[in-house]
Design brief:
Blueprint (H helix, E strand, L loop, with lengths): L2 E4 L3 H13 L3 E5 L12 E4 L4 H8 L5 E4 L6 H14 L3 E4 L14 E3 L2 H9 L5 E4 L6 H4 L8 E4 L12 E4 L7 H8 L3 E5 L7 H10 L3 E4 L9 E3 L2 H17 L5
Parallel strand pairs: 1-2, 1-4, 2-3, 4-5, 5-12, 6-11, 7-8, 7-10, 8-9, 10-11
Helix pairs in contact: 1-8, 2-3, 6-7
């Protein structure tokens, strides 16, 4: 094994294809939090490593790490940064750009966490469309207990939800967002700054319908980790680092 690809995103799957085509030995690691993963090409492992110590042990057979996890998978990114720092393993972050500069972003309600988003949403509407993933639904249950919320998640929520809430199990790409929001009579959209184009249609639909949008900001990436937005840039970076490893040097 040469490269550990921490995946679970569309960008990670795209990179896996590039690595396979380039003949780079790699294994993709998926966190296992989603029951129905879209699997990348190549070898795949699922589940955690057992924290930083477990990841340090695993890195004994790894020459480089690519963190291509979701922009909000902050725990895994922090563990990767810590483990690679301890072992001296080269690390690069593949992360899609956020939406802070997207059309209409200046008019959205930006918040720093889900508790804040829930309270704000309760004052903006009574029929929210929640697209924040199932892991954070607990923050919304209290403030939105009396709301007629539409909740879209990939897998069944693990906590009891208010009777008035409607759960829609679905995964992207999402192409009929305006129809969905209009059909629910949604009056506010709640989401995370996931970025990219995969889930952008809901943002565009909210703009067309004139809905307020609540967006949970990303947290900062671990300090000192190089970040690039495109899989091809990772492939070029890996080529440089693997060439150095083969030559027995870490010099730039």
């Amino acid at each position: 094994m040469t490269v550990l690809l921490l995946g679970g995103t569309g960008e990670a799957r795209e990179l896996a294809v590039l690595l396979a085509d380039a003949g780079v030995a790699f294994v993709s690691s998926l966190a296992g939090r989603v029951a129905r993963h879209r699997l990348p090409v190549g070898e795949v492992r699922s589940g955690g490593f057992g924290g930083v110590d477990g990841l340090v042990e695993y890195l004994a057979g790894v020459e480089a790490v690519v963190d291509a996890t979701h922009p909000f998978a902050t725990g895994m990114s922090a563990n990767a940064a810590a483990a690679c720092a301890r072992t001296g393993t080269p690390l690069i972050r593949l992360e899609r750009p956020g939406w802070s500069a997207a059309p209409g972003a200046e008019g959205w309600h930006w918040v720093d966490g889900h508790d804040e988003a829930a309270v704000l949403t309760a004052g903006l509407g009574t029929r929210p469309f929640l697209t924040i993933g199932r892991q954070h639904l607990g923050s919304y249950v209290g403030p939105l207990a009396d709301a007629a919320a539409l909740v879209r998640v990939v897998d069944e929520p693990e906590i009891p939800l208010p009777d008035a809430w409607v759960v829609r199990l679905d995964r992207g790409p999402y192409e009929r967002e305006r129809e969905l929001m209009a059909g629910h009579r949604a009056d506010v959209l709640v989401t995370k700054d996931s970025g990219g184009t995969w889930t952008w249609p809901k943002m565009a639909a909210a703009g067309e319908l004139g809905l307020p949008v609540v967006v949970v900001r990303r947290t900062a990436a671990p300090a000192g980790v190089e970040t690039v937005p495109e899989p091809a840039e990772v492939l070029a970076w890996l080529g440089q680092h693997l060439d150095r490893a083969a030559a027995g040097t870490t010099e730039p």
